[in-house]
């Protein structure tokens, strides 16, 4: 047993060192900043939601006595499980942050596996190392947000998708389904990922008969897992709510991005008007009214200036969501201004790397399409609603994979040149 463990360490020592480094950095951040490291935003909301869930058995978010459909249940249930074991107080909060950090470590491992599988081992190690030391991610892995669990699930999903397309084993199919459903429990934005996967499977000439069979099985599993959620939502709100009912606010906020602020009433006035005219409605009903207001604003904007509408919902919002990094609290003495400069440089390098990768790794063209497809999918989705750098935090590792692939390619070419000369 000891010999097997020693052989395992020797074989994979590089990634083990990176994972240990990542863990040390995240635990050191937790030690250094403790429970004071908070956004006082969604992280506090999820913590309260978990506590109320344990005390009352009701999933809430905005109001303690009001069942919510604003969020998916994953984060609240995850934190509730930790609190059941370690309690609500300081120990439980520290334990919850350690669990979130472990999700971050899982993401690093699967980013490495993806890089190794699609490109080569060196690419995987570079991407994993970049993610391990990426300061905004270290911060995020110390916050009680959905980003880290969702990100871990997404990279397991991506890895299993790659393996399924190439090896066509049922174990990878169930890995895809499990990780997809896990992601759904934390963020509904992953819902249309199967369309991206379908394009990739068709490029890989995946057997249509097997695809159809697996689709039917996936549909049954989806009904089994989401069925209780649908029933619960119908009992409380008397309508079919497939995932969450919290899209109204981001849709409304998105109409004020780009040139949208020029059309219609200011955002604060819209919210005040809704609250004044409907003082006793539920948070879900409030969201629906915000959605109606957003649609009215979109119609007005399109009628007034379709060119600025199209520019804002394509170019402006894309720049908005990728131009900055989600880094709201400074840690390790890294200033926000410096981090944003590093981010801009990273995005330039990543865009160049992605373009080069298409030509330099022709054997991985389909895999490059899948990686780019995920970036494009979430970019378009966020453009439709609210372009926000936080929503793209889980996607940075894909850019790191492209950067790693080009560094690896040219380092190998350089080594080959030196060997020839010697």
From TrEMBL:
Its main location: membrane. One of its GO terms (biological process) is lipopolysaccharide biosynthetic process. It comes from Aeribacillus pallidus. The chain crosses the membrane at residues 12-31, 94-115, 122-139, 172-203, 215-231, 368-388, 394-411. GO terms for cellular component: plasma membrane. It holds the Pfam family PMT_2. The keyword Protease does not apply. It is found in: Cell membrane. InterPro entries: LipidA_mod_glycosyltrf_83 (IPR050297), RgtA/B/C-like (IPR038731). The keyword Transferase applies. It is a multi-pass membrane protein. Keywords: Cell membrane, Glycosyltransferase, Membrane, Transferase, Transmembrane, Transmembrane helix. GO terms for molecular function: pentosyltransferase activity. Residues 73-229 form the Glycosyltransferase RgtA/B/C/D-like domain. This is Glycosyltransferase RgtA/B/C/D-like domain-containing protein.
């Amino acid at each position: 047993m000891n010999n097997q463990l020693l052989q395992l360490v020797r074989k994979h020592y590089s990634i083990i060192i990176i994972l240990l480094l990542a863990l040390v950095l995240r635990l050191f951040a937790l030690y250094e900043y403790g429970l004071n490291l908070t956004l006082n935003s969604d992280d506090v909301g999820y913590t309260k939601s978990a506590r109320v869930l344990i005390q009352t058995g009701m999933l809430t978010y905005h109001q303690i006595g009001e069942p919510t459909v604003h969020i998916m249940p994953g984060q609240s249930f995850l934190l509730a499980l930790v609190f059941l074991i370690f309690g609500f107080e300081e120990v439980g909060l520290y334990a919850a942050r350690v669990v979130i950090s472990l999700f971050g470590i899982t993401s690093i491992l699967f980013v490495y596996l993806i890089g190794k599988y699609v490109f080569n081992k060196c690419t995987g190690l570079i991407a994993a190392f970049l993610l391990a030391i990426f300061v905004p991610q270290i911060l995020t892995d110390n916050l009680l947000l959905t980003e880290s669990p969702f990100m871990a699930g997404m990279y397991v999903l991506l890895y299993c998708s790659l393996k399924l397309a190439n090896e066509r084993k049922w174990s990878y199919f169930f890995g895809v389904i499990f990780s997809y459903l896990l992601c759904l429990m934390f963020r509904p934005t992953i819902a249309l990922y199967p369309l991206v996967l379908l394009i990739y499977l068709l490029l890989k000439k995946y057997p249509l008969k097997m695809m159809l069979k697996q689709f039917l099985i996936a549909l049954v599993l989806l009904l089994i897992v989401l069925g209780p959620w649908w029933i619960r939502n119908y009992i409380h709100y008397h309508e079919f709510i497939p995932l969450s009912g919290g899209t109204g606010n981001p849709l409304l906020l998105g109409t004020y991005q780009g040139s949208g602020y020029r059309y219609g009433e200011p955002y604060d006035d819209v919210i005040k008007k809704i609250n004044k005219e409907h003082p006793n409605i539920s948070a879900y009903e409030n969201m629906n009214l915000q959605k109606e207001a957003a649609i009215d604003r979109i119609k007005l904007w399109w009628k007034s200036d379709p060119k600025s509408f199209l520019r804002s919902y394509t170019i402006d919002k894309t720049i908005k969501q990728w131009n900055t990094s989600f880094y709201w609290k400074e840690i390790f003495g890294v200033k926000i201004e410096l981090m944003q400069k590093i981010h801009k440089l990273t995005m330039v390098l990543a865009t160049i790397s992605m373009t080069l990768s298409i030509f330099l790794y022709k054997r991985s063209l389909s895999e490059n399409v899948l990686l780019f497809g995920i970036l494009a999918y979430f970019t378009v989705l966020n453009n439709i609603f609210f372009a926000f750098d936080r929503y793209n935090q889980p996607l940075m590792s894909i850019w790191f994979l492209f950067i790693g692939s080009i560094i690896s390619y040219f380092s190998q070419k350089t080594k080959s040149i030196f060997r020839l000369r010697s």
